């Protein structure tokens, strides 16, 4: 910063920080009422089997629809809800809503084979009676445990020990699948992975798009793409060795799809197939291949 206007910049920066803090505070204050008022909605993003591009599951992704019509994304309000603790009732609501909706799809389209994947915040596993919550939702809705997947981020999962870990084991014993979300963004102890009750691994975007782009010298003289591809291949192989199924996040191009398919990756998710869509758009996706054939 130039000395001359340094003070101004600091003032501007403070003002901006202040605005952000106020906006966050307002959102956090409005959130409990918004939950009661039904302002949260769930969209669903297809999880697609790579061999034939059939829809095998959907991920529930929550959005906040303001009374004025403006939509706020989860990247904005989920961190706030995690801080205030509202994530516990909000997360419980998303779980119930997704299961209720999945039962409706199955009733309206008999024979539907679909699993529903719901994101769990660390706090839901740490503080709340998550096993009771899930048990109750499954009992109330009639959705089968084996068709439910719960996603925890790699960093949340790696820090899970004691009672929360027991809770995950109990959920797994009920038949619920546990997936590691955003895998590759943290620092997994791969040996430790084996001890966790995990069924699936969701490879974070960078592995799919451009792995290790931040390490220009990776591979030395060799083509960097070649090295990236080998790392991706090893990761998929490792996951399979551990008995995990692999989902690639952020599949955006046919080239990525082709590459992942060749490497034996099981499922994919991303704009190439479909963005998150409203519940009403899911039945049409059950019929044929999802995304460009
Ligand atoms: P996530 O669980 O990793 O979900 C995937 C995110 O990637 C979604 O963002 C999705 O819209 C986006 N995405 C999907 N395909 C593509 C693609 O091809 N390209 C790109 N660039 N992005 C793609 P979204 O819906 O904004 O959600 C963001 C995050 O918010 C989620 O990341 C998840 O961590 C959190 N979240 C959403 N719903 C819930 C919830 O009900 N509970 C909790 N605890 N967290 C949630
Ligand atoms: Mg997720
Ligand atoms: Mg993810
Ligand atoms: Mg995420």
From TrEMBL:
- The residues covered by the EAL domain are 24-290
Protein known as: PAS domain S-box-containing protein/diguanylate cyclase (GGDEF)-like protein
Lineage at the top is: Bacteria, Bacillati, Actinomycetota, Actinomycetes, Pseudonocardiales
Q: Which part of the complete sequence is present?
A: 431 to 723 of 723
């Amino acid at each position: 910063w130039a000395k001359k206007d340094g003070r101004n910049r600091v003032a501007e920066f403070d003002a901006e920080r202040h605005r952000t803090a106020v906006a966050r505070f307002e959102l956090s204050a409005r959130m409990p009422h918004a939950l009661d008022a039904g302002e949260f909605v769930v969209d669903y993003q297809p999880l697609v089997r790579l061999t034939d591009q059939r829809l095998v599951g959907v991920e529930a992704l929550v959005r906040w629809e303001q009374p004025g019509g403006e939509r706020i994304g989860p990247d904005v309000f989920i961190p706030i809800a995690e801080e205030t603790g509202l994530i516990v009732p909000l997360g419980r609501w998303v779980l119930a809503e997704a299961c209720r909706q999945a039962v409706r799809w199955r009733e309206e389209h008999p024979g539907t084979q679909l699993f529903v994947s719901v994101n769990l915040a660390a706090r839901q596993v740490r503080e709340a009676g998550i096993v009771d919550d899930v048990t109750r939702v499954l009992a109330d809705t009639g959705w089968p445990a084996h068709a439910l997947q719960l996603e925890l981020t790699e960093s949340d999962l790696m820090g899970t020990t004691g009672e929360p870990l027991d809770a995950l084991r109990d959920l797994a014993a009920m038949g619920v699948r546990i997936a590691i979300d955003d895998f590759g963004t943290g620092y997994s102890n791969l040996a430790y992975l084996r001890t966790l009750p995990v069924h699936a691994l969701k490879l974070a975007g960078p592995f799919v798009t451009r792995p290790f782009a931040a390490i220009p010298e990776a591979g030395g003289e060799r083509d960097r793409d070649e090295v990236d591809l080998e790392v991706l291949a090893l990761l998929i192989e490792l996951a399979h060795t551990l008995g995990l199924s692999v989902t690639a996040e952020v599949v955006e191009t046919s080239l990525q799809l082709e590459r992942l398919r060749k490497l034996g990756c099981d499922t994919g998710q991303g704009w190439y197939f479909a963005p998150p869509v409203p519940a009403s758009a899911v039945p049409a996706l059950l019929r044929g291949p999802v995304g460009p054939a």
